[in-house]
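User: Good morning. I'm curious how pyridoxal-5'-phosphate would be positioned relative to this chain. Could you predict the structure with it bound?
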Amino acid sequence: MLPATLPTISDAELTAWRGLSYASLANAVLRKFIAADDIDAATLTKLTGDAYTEAVFGSAEITPISSLEKYASGLHLQALSNGPTLAFKDMAMQLLGRLFEFELARKNATLNILGATSGDTGSAAEYAMRGRKGINVFMLSPAGRMSAFQRAQMYSLQEKNIHNIAVDGVFDDCQDIVKAVSNDLAFKHAHNIGTVNSINWGRISAQVVYYVRGYLSATSSNSQKVSFAVPSGNFGNILAGHIAREMGVPIDTLVLATNENNVLAEFFQTGVYRPRPSKETFETSSPSMDISKASNFERFVFHLFNGDAARVKALWTEVDQGRSFDVSQTPEFKGSRERFGIVSGTSTHADRLQTIKAVYETTGRLIDTHTADGVKVAASRIKPGIPMIVLETALPIKFAETVKQAVGFEPALTAQQAEMMKLPQRVVQIAPDVARVKEIIAAA
Ligand SMILES: *Cc1c(COP(=O)(O)O)cnc(C)c1O
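Assistant: Good morning! Here's the predicted structure, ligand included:
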Protein backbone atom coordinates (compact mmCIF):
# COMPACT_ATOMS: atom_id res chain seq x y z
CA MET A 1 0.00 0.00 0.00
CA LEU A 2 3.03 2.33 0.15
CA PRO A 3 3.00 4.47 -3.01
CA ALA A 4 6.35 4.62 -4.82
CA THR A 5 5.89 8.33 -5.51
CA LEU A 6 3.68 10.63 -3.51
CA PRO A 7 0.57 12.10 -5.11
CA THR A 8 0.47 15.90 -5.33
CA ILE A 9 -2.09 18.52 -4.37
CA SER A 10 -2.45 21.39 -6.87
CA ASP A 11 -3.23 25.01 -6.19
CA ALA A 12 -6.59 24.60 -7.97
CA GLU A 13 -7.45 21.62 -5.74
CA LEU A 14 -6.62 23.53 -2.58
CA THR A 15 -8.91 26.33 -3.72
CA ALA A 16 -11.71 23.93 -4.59
CA TRP A 17 -11.32 22.17 -1.22
CA ARG A 18 -11.74 25.32 0.86
CA GLY A 19 -15.50 24.91 1.05
CA LEU A 20 -15.62 21.16 1.68
CA SER A 21 -16.84 19.42 4.80
CA TYR A 22 -14.22 17.36 6.65
CA ALA A 23 -15.71 14.12 5.31
CA SER A 24 -15.62 15.36 1.70
CA LEU A 25 -12.08 16.60 2.15
CA ALA A 26 -11.06 13.21 3.56
CA ASN A 27 -12.67 11.57 0.55
CA ALA A 28 -10.73 13.82 -1.87
CA VAL A 29 -7.38 13.35 -0.11
CA LEU A 30 -7.72 9.57 0.36
CA ARG A 31 -8.76 9.16 -3.27
CA LYS A 32 -5.20 10.17 -4.12
CA PHE A 33 -3.83 7.22 -2.18
CA ILE A 34 -6.45 4.55 -2.92
CA ALA A 35 -7.01 3.24 -6.46
CA ALA A 36 -10.60 3.20 -7.74
CA ASP A 37 -10.39 -0.53 -8.40
CA ASP A 38 -9.47 -1.10 -4.74
CA ILE A 39 -12.35 0.94 -3.36
CA ASP A 40 -14.96 2.42 -5.67
CA ALA A 41 -16.14 6.03 -5.44
CA ALA A 42 -19.47 5.34 -3.76
CA THR A 43 -17.86 3.14 -1.09
CA LEU A 44 -15.08 5.58 -0.22
CA THR A 45 -17.63 8.39 0.01
CA LYS A 46 -19.74 6.30 2.34
CA LEU A 47 -16.84 5.19 4.56
CA THR A 48 -15.46 8.73 4.98
CA GLY A 49 -18.99 10.09 5.42
CA ASP A 50 -19.69 7.59 8.21
CA ALA A 51 -16.36 8.13 9.98
CA TYR A 52 -16.17 11.92 10.13
CA THR A 53 -19.48 12.96 11.64
CA GLU A 54 -20.49 15.30 14.42
CA ALA A 55 -21.83 12.26 16.29
CA VAL A 56 -18.36 10.66 16.33
CA PHE A 57 -16.17 13.76 16.73
CA GLY A 58 -18.34 16.13 18.72
CA SER A 59 -18.57 19.03 16.26
CA ALA A 60 -19.39 19.62 12.60
CA GLU A 61 -15.87 20.94 12.00
CA ILE A 62 -14.37 17.64 13.30
CA THR A 63 -10.97 19.34 14.01
CA PRO A 64 -11.93 22.90 15.08
CA ILE A 65 -9.21 25.52 15.32
CA SER A 66 -9.13 28.07 18.12
CA SER A 67 -6.85 30.96 18.88
CA LEU A 68 -4.27 31.03 21.66
CA GLU A 69 -3.31 34.61 20.68
CA LYS A 70 -3.62 35.76 24.27
CA TYR A 71 -0.91 33.32 25.26
CA ALA A 72 1.38 33.98 22.27
CA SER A 73 0.80 36.07 19.18
CA GLY A 74 0.17 33.90 16.11
CA LEU A 75 -0.50 30.71 18.11
CA HIS A 76 -3.49 28.46 17.35
CA LEU A 77 -4.74 25.08 18.51
CA GLN A 78 -6.25 22.46 16.20
CA ALA A 79 -8.30 19.93 18.18
CA LEU A 80 -7.65 16.35 17.05
CA SER A 81 -8.85 14.82 20.26
CA ASN A 82 -12.64 15.05 20.26
CA GLY A 83 -13.19 11.50 19.01
CA PRO A 84 -14.44 8.56 21.14
CA THR A 85 -11.18 8.02 23.06
CA LEU A 86 -10.20 11.69 23.41
CA ALA A 87 -6.81 11.37 21.67
CA PHE A 88 -5.72 12.01 18.09
CA LYS A 89 -5.34 8.29 17.27
CA ASP A 90 -9.12 8.27 16.66
CA MET A 91 -8.66 10.50 13.61
CA ALA A 92 -7.21 7.60 11.61
CA MET A 93 -8.59 4.62 13.54
CA GLN A 94 -12.23 5.56 13.06
CA LEU A 95 -11.73 5.40 9.30
CA LEU A 96 -9.52 2.30 9.43
CA GLY A 97 -12.12 0.31 11.35
CA ARG A 98 -14.57 0.94 8.52
CA LEU A 99 -11.99 0.23 5.79
CA PHE A 100 -11.05 -3.06 7.47
CA GLU A 101 -14.63 -4.23 7.77
CA PHE A 102 -15.22 -3.44 4.08
CA GLU A 103 -12.04 -5.24 2.95
CA LEU A 104 -12.70 -8.32 5.07
CA ALA A 105 -16.29 -8.62 3.88
CA ARG A 106 -15.14 -8.36 0.27
CA LYS A 107 -12.55 -11.11 0.70
CA ASN A 108 -14.85 -13.10 2.95
CA ALA A 109 -12.00 -13.13 5.50
CA THR A 110 -11.57 -12.55 9.21
CA LEU A 111 -8.84 -10.82 11.16
CA ASN A 112 -7.55 -11.10 14.70
CA ILE A 113 -5.81 -7.88 15.68
CA LEU A 114 -3.20 -8.35 18.37
CA GLY A 115 -1.65 -5.32 20.01
CA ALA A 116 0.04 -3.93 23.09
CA THR A 117 -0.82 -0.55 24.51
CA SER A 118 0.19 1.77 27.29
CA GLY A 119 -3.03 3.72 26.78
CA ASP A 120 -4.09 5.72 23.72
CA THR A 121 -3.41 3.39 20.79
CA GLY A 122 -5.18 0.41 22.29
CA SER A 123 -8.32 2.26 23.21
CA ALA A 124 -8.49 3.98 19.80
CA ALA A 125 -8.18 0.58 18.09
CA GLU A 126 -10.85 -0.96 20.33
CA TYR A 127 -13.35 1.86 19.80
CA ALA A 128 -12.74 1.71 16.05
CA MET A 129 -13.20 -2.08 15.84
CA ARG A 130 -15.93 -2.66 18.45
CA GLY A 131 -18.79 -4.72 17.07
CA ARG A 132 -17.29 -4.92 13.57
CA LYS A 133 -17.93 -8.09 11.60
CA GLY A 134 -14.98 -10.39 10.98
CA ILE A 135 -12.68 -8.60 13.43
CA ASN A 136 -11.48 -9.56 16.91
CA VAL A 137 -9.18 -7.34 18.95
CA PHE A 138 -6.82 -8.77 21.58
CA MET A 139 -5.21 -5.88 23.42
CA LEU A 140 -2.51 -6.41 26.02
CA SER A 141 -2.00 -3.69 28.62
CA PRO A 142 0.26 -3.53 31.67
CA ALA A 143 -1.89 -4.32 34.74
CA GLY A 144 -2.34 -1.37 37.05
CA ARG A 145 -0.19 1.02 35.02
CA MET A 146 -2.78 3.00 33.11
CA SER A 147 -4.81 5.83 34.60
CA ALA A 148 -8.23 5.03 36.06
CA PHE A 149 -9.78 6.90 33.15
CA GLN A 150 -7.81 4.92 30.55
CA ARG A 151 -8.72 1.63 32.25
CA ALA A 152 -12.40 2.51 32.36
CA GLN A 153 -12.32 3.60 28.74
CA MET A 154 -10.93 0.29 27.49
CA TYR A 155 -12.23 -2.23 29.96
CA SER A 156 -15.83 -1.02 29.99
CA LEU A 157 -16.40 -2.07 26.38
CA GLN A 158 -18.93 -4.91 26.36
CA GLU A 159 -18.66 -6.03 22.71
CA LYS A 160 -17.76 -9.70 22.39
CA ASN A 161 -15.10 -9.04 19.74
CA ILE A 162 -13.02 -6.92 22.15
CA HIS A 163 -10.64 -8.85 24.41
CA ASN A 164 -8.81 -6.89 27.11
CA ILE A 165 -5.84 -8.73 28.56
CA ALA A 166 -4.05 -7.13 31.51
CA VAL A 167 -0.53 -8.50 31.89
CA ASP A 168 1.30 -8.56 35.23
CA GLY A 169 4.26 -6.54 34.03
CA VAL A 170 5.20 -3.38 32.14
CA PHE A 171 4.47 -2.24 28.60
CA ASP A 172 7.64 -3.89 27.25
CA ASP A 173 6.45 -7.27 28.56
CA CYS A 174 3.22 -6.81 26.60
CA GLN A 175 5.16 -5.80 23.50
CA ASP A 176 7.43 -8.86 23.85
CA ILE A 177 4.41 -11.18 23.97
CA VAL A 178 2.99 -9.59 20.80
CA LYS A 179 6.34 -10.13 19.06
CA ALA A 180 6.59 -13.73 20.26
CA VAL A 181 3.09 -14.58 19.04
CA SER A 182 3.72 -12.85 15.68
CA ASN A 183 7.01 -14.69 15.25
CA ASP A 184 5.23 -18.03 15.49
CA LEU A 185 4.33 -17.99 11.80
CA ALA A 186 2.30 -21.18 11.88
CA PHE A 187 0.11 -19.84 14.69
CA LYS A 188 -0.06 -16.45 13.05
CA HIS A 189 -1.36 -17.87 9.76
CA ALA A 190 -3.69 -20.38 11.37
CA HIS A 191 -5.39 -17.58 13.31
CA ASN A 192 -5.25 -14.70 10.77
CA ILE A 193 -3.30 -12.48 13.09
CA GLY A 194 -2.47 -8.91 12.15
CA THR A 195 -0.92 -6.20 14.27
CA VAL A 196 -1.96 -2.57 14.41
CA ASN A 197 1.39 -1.82 12.72
CA SER A 198 0.45 -3.40 9.44
CA ILE A 199 -2.07 -0.61 8.91
CA ASN A 200 0.43 2.18 9.26
CA TRP A 201 0.24 3.57 5.76
CA GLY A 202 -3.56 3.76 5.89
CA ARG A 203 -3.20 5.53 9.19
CA ILE A 204 -0.81 8.08 7.80
CA SER A 205 -2.87 8.98 4.74
CA ALA A 206 -5.93 9.52 6.97
CA GLN A 207 -3.79 11.87 9.05
CA VAL A 208 -2.70 13.93 6.03
CA VAL A 209 -6.31 15.10 5.88
CA TYR A 210 -6.19 17.14 9.10
CA TYR A 211 -3.03 18.94 8.01
CA VAL A 212 -4.85 20.02 4.84
CA ARG A 213 -7.87 21.04 6.93
CA GLY A 214 -5.69 22.96 9.38
CA TYR A 215 -4.01 24.80 6.53
CA LEU A 216 -7.33 25.71 4.88
CA SER A 217 -8.90 26.81 8.19
CA ALA A 218 -6.05 29.16 9.09
CA THR A 219 -5.71 30.83 5.67
CA SER A 220 -7.93 32.54 3.12
CA SER A 221 -5.59 32.32 0.13
CA ASN A 222 -3.10 29.73 -1.08
CA SER A 223 -0.35 32.34 -1.14
CA GLN A 224 -0.31 32.16 2.68
CA LYS A 225 1.73 29.67 4.66
CA VAL A 226 1.21 28.06 8.07
CA SER A 227 3.42 26.11 10.45
CA PHE A 228 2.45 23.13 12.60
CA ALA A 229 3.82 22.06 15.97
CA VAL A 230 3.44 18.36 16.72
CA PRO A 231 3.88 16.53 20.04
CA SER A 232 5.90 13.51 18.87
CA GLY A 233 6.98 10.07 20.01
CA ASN A 234 6.92 7.48 17.24
CA PHE A 235 7.00 10.04 14.41
CA GLY A 236 3.54 8.86 13.25
CA ASN A 237 1.69 12.15 13.46
CA ILE A 238 4.42 14.41 12.11
CA LEU A 239 5.23 11.96 9.29
CA ALA A 240 1.77 12.79 7.91
CA GLY A 241 2.62 16.51 8.18
CA HIS A 242 5.85 15.92 6.29
CA ILE A 243 3.91 14.05 3.60
CA ALA A 244 1.29 16.83 3.36
CA ARG A 245 4.12 19.34 2.86
CA GLU A 246 5.78 17.16 0.20
CA MET A 247 2.42 16.84 -1.57
CA GLY A 248 2.22 20.60 -1.92
CA VAL A 249 0.37 21.96 1.12
CA PRO A 250 2.02 25.37 1.80
CA ILE A 251 3.56 24.49 5.16
CA ASP A 252 6.45 26.66 6.28
CA THR A 253 7.82 24.87 9.34
CA LEU A 254 7.05 21.56 11.06
CA VAL A 255 8.00 21.88 14.71
CA LEU A 256 8.74 18.50 16.28
CA ALA A 257 8.25 18.58 20.06
CA THR A 258 9.45 15.78 22.32
CA ASN A 259 9.40 15.34 26.08
CA GLU A 260 12.46 14.21 28.06
CA ASN A 261 12.66 11.20 25.71
CA ASN A 262 14.31 13.34 23.08
CA VAL A 263 15.67 10.82 20.59
CA LEU A 264 13.95 12.56 17.66
CA ALA A 265 14.76 16.13 18.73
CA GLU A 266 18.37 15.08 19.05
CA PHE A 267 18.42 13.70 15.52
CA PHE A 268 17.09 16.88 13.93
CA GLN A 269 19.54 18.98 15.92
CA THR A 270 22.67 16.86 15.45
CA GLY A 271 22.24 14.29 12.68
CA VAL A 272 22.82 11.51 15.22
CA TYR A 273 20.04 8.97 15.76
CA ARG A 274 20.56 7.27 19.08
CA PRO A 275 17.73 4.92 20.05
CA ARG A 276 17.78 4.16 23.76
CA PRO A 277 17.36 0.82 25.51
CA SER A 278 14.06 0.68 27.37
CA LYS A 279 15.75 1.11 30.76
CA GLU A 280 16.93 4.53 29.56
CA THR A 281 13.38 5.52 28.61
CA PHE A 282 11.96 7.93 31.18
CA GLU A 283 8.44 7.58 32.54
CA THR A 284 7.07 11.09 32.08
CA SER A 285 3.84 13.01 32.54
CA SER A 286 3.31 12.93 28.75
CA PRO A 287 3.43 9.11 28.64
CA SER A 288 2.23 8.64 25.06
CA MET A 289 5.52 10.18 23.93
CA ASP A 290 7.72 7.93 26.10
CA ILE A 291 9.54 6.06 23.37
CA SER A 292 13.12 5.01 22.96
CA LYS A 293 12.97 4.20 19.26
CA ALA A 294 10.59 5.83 16.74
CA SER A 295 8.78 3.20 14.68
CA ASN A 296 7.77 5.49 11.78
CA PHE A 297 11.04 7.36 11.47
CA GLU A 298 12.55 5.04 8.84
CA ARG A 299 10.08 6.38 6.27
CA PHE A 300 11.37 9.89 6.74
CA VAL A 301 15.00 8.79 6.44
CA PHE A 302 14.05 7.03 3.22
CA HIS A 303 12.91 10.40 1.82
CA LEU A 304 15.96 12.14 3.24
CA PHE A 305 18.20 9.81 1.22
CA ASN A 306 16.02 10.11 -1.89
CA GLY A 307 14.68 6.57 -1.80
CA ASP A 308 18.09 4.90 -1.51
CA ALA A 309 16.77 1.68 0.05
CA ALA A 310 20.18 0.04 0.43
CA ARG A 311 21.49 2.99 2.40
CA VAL A 312 18.48 3.06 4.71
CA LYS A 313 18.71 -0.68 5.19
CA ALA A 314 22.34 -0.35 6.25
CA LEU A 315 21.40 2.33 8.81
CA TRP A 316 18.61 0.19 10.25
CA THR A 317 20.90 -2.81 10.49
CA GLU A 318 22.75 -0.70 13.04
CA VAL A 319 19.54 0.38 14.79
CA ASP A 320 18.26 -3.18 15.01
CA GLN A 321 21.45 -4.17 16.77
CA GLY A 322 20.90 -1.45 19.34
CA ARG A 323 23.44 0.96 17.88
CA SER A 324 23.12 4.55 16.76
CA PHE A 325 23.98 6.16 13.42
CA ASP A 326 25.47 9.52 12.50
CA VAL A 327 24.58 11.19 9.21
CA SER A 328 25.60 14.68 10.33
CA GLN A 329 28.31 15.00 7.68
CA THR A 330 26.16 14.01 4.70
CA PRO A 331 24.99 16.68 2.24
CA GLU A 332 21.44 15.28 2.63
CA PHE A 333 21.35 15.99 6.36
CA LYS A 334 23.06 19.35 5.97
CA GLY A 335 20.41 20.44 3.45
CA SER A 336 17.50 18.86 5.32
CA ARG A 337 16.28 21.79 7.38
CA GLU A 338 15.96 23.91 4.27
CA ARG A 339 14.40 21.10 2.27
CA PHE A 340 11.93 19.66 4.79
CA GLY A 341 11.34 22.60 7.15
CA ILE A 342 11.58 20.45 10.29
CA VAL A 343 12.89 22.00 13.51
CA SER A 344 12.77 20.40 16.94
CA GLY A 345 12.80 21.05 20.64
CA THR A 346 12.33 19.38 24.00
CA SER A 347 9.99 20.05 26.90
CA THR A 348 10.23 18.87 30.51
CA HIS A 349 7.80 18.10 33.32
CA ALA A 350 8.36 21.59 34.74
CA ASP A 351 7.70 23.09 31.28
CA ARG A 352 4.45 21.15 31.00
CA LEU A 353 3.17 22.37 34.37
CA GLN A 354 4.18 25.94 33.63
CA THR A 355 2.67 25.88 30.11
CA ILE A 356 -0.65 24.32 31.18
CA LYS A 357 -0.97 26.95 33.90
CA ALA A 358 -0.01 29.91 31.71
CA VAL A 359 -2.24 28.87 28.82
CA TYR A 360 -5.13 28.43 31.25
CA GLU A 361 -4.56 31.77 32.95
CA THR A 362 -4.21 33.74 29.70
CA THR A 363 -6.82 32.03 27.50
CA GLY A 364 -9.11 30.06 29.84
CA ARG A 365 -8.31 26.89 27.88
CA LEU A 366 -7.14 23.72 29.61
CA ILE A 367 -4.69 21.65 27.59
CA ASP A 368 -3.28 18.20 28.25
CA THR A 369 0.35 17.36 28.97
CA HIS A 370 1.27 16.25 25.42
CA THR A 371 -0.27 19.33 23.85
CA ALA A 372 1.63 21.39 26.42
CA ASP A 373 4.90 19.95 25.10
CA GLY A 374 3.82 21.14 21.65
CA VAL A 375 2.89 24.62 22.88
CA LYS A 376 6.14 24.98 24.81
CA VAL A 377 8.34 24.14 21.84
CA ALA A 378 6.17 26.05 19.34
CA ALA A 379 6.21 29.32 21.27
CA SER A 380 9.85 30.09 20.45
CA ARG A 381 9.43 29.23 16.77
CA ILE A 382 6.61 31.56 15.73
CA LYS A 383 7.37 33.77 12.72
CA PRO A 384 5.45 37.01 12.12
CA GLY A 385 2.60 36.58 9.63
CA ILE A 386 2.68 32.77 9.67
CA PRO A 387 0.04 31.12 11.88
CA MET A 388 1.57 28.47 14.16
CA ILE A 389 -0.93 25.65 14.65
CA VAL A 390 -0.28 23.34 17.61
CA LEU A 391 -1.96 19.96 17.21
CA GLU A 392 -3.96 19.09 20.31
CA THR A 393 -3.31 15.35 20.69
CA ALA A 394 -5.38 14.53 23.79
CA LEU A 395 -7.93 16.09 26.13
CA PRO A 396 -6.80 17.05 29.65
CA ILE A 397 -9.25 14.67 31.35
CA LYS A 398 -7.06 11.73 30.24
CA PHE A 399 -4.14 13.10 32.27
CA ALA A 400 -6.08 14.69 35.08
CA GLU A 401 -3.47 14.19 37.79
CA THR A 402 -0.79 16.28 36.12
CA VAL A 403 -3.30 18.90 35.05
CA LYS A 404 -4.32 19.21 38.68
CA GLN A 405 -0.70 19.64 39.67
CA ALA A 406 -0.50 22.55 37.21
CA VAL A 407 -3.74 24.42 37.87
CA GLY A 408 -4.93 23.13 41.22
CA PHE A 409 -8.08 21.36 40.05
CA GLU A 410 -8.99 18.36 37.92
CA PRO A 411 -10.84 18.82 34.63
CA ALA A 412 -14.54 18.04 35.11
CA LEU A 413 -15.95 14.75 33.82
CA THR A 414 -18.88 15.04 31.44
CA ALA A 415 -22.03 13.18 32.50
CA GLN A 416 -21.24 10.49 29.93
CA GLN A 417 -17.68 10.07 31.22
CA ALA A 418 -18.92 9.83 34.81
CA GLU A 419 -21.25 7.03 33.67
CA MET A 420 -18.38 5.26 31.95
CA MET A 421 -16.29 5.28 35.14
CA LYS A 422 -19.07 3.31 36.87
CA LEU A 423 -19.59 0.63 34.21
CA PRO A 424 -18.57 -2.97 34.88
CA GLN A 425 -15.14 -3.78 33.41
CA ARG A 426 -14.29 -6.74 31.17
CA VAL A 427 -10.66 -7.76 31.42
CA VAL A 428 -8.69 -10.94 32.12
CA GLN A 429 -5.50 -10.62 34.10
CA ILE A 430 -2.66 -13.00 33.29
CA ALA A 431 1.02 -13.61 34.01
CA PRO A 432 3.38 -12.55 31.20
CA ASP A 433 2.93 -15.84 29.40
CA VAL A 434 2.92 -16.26 25.61
CA ALA A 435 1.17 -19.65 25.73
CA ARG A 436 -1.71 -18.20 27.75
CA VAL A 437 -2.25 -15.43 25.19
CA LYS A 438 -2.29 -17.98 22.39
CA GLU A 439 -4.91 -19.98 24.29
CA ILE A 440 -7.12 -16.92 24.62
CA ILE A 441 -6.83 -16.19 20.90
CA ALA A 442 -7.48 -19.79 19.93
CA ALA A 443 -10.55 -19.99 22.17
CA ALA A 444 -12.24 -16.85 20.77
C1 LIG B 1 0.40 8.78 20.27
C2 LIG B 1 0.40 10.11 20.90
C3 LIG B 1 1.42 11.07 20.66
C4 LIG B 1 2.63 10.77 19.81
O1 LIG B 1 2.31 10.57 18.46
P1 LIG B 1 3.35 9.85 17.49
O2 LIG B 1 2.59 9.59 16.27
O3 LIG B 1 3.77 8.62 18.18
O4 LIG B 1 4.50 10.77 17.28
C5 LIG B 1 1.31 12.31 21.24
N1 LIG B 1 0.28 12.61 22.07
C6 LIG B 1 -0.69 11.73 22.34
C7 LIG B 1 -1.78 12.12 23.27
C8 LIG B 1 -0.68 10.45 21.77
O5 LIG B 1 -1.65 9.57 22.05
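The pocket of pyridoxal-5'-phosphate is lined by residues 87, 89, 120, 231-237, 288-289, 370, 393-394 (CB under 6 Å). The two ends are 29 Å apart (CA to CA).
Let me know if you'd like a different ligand tried.
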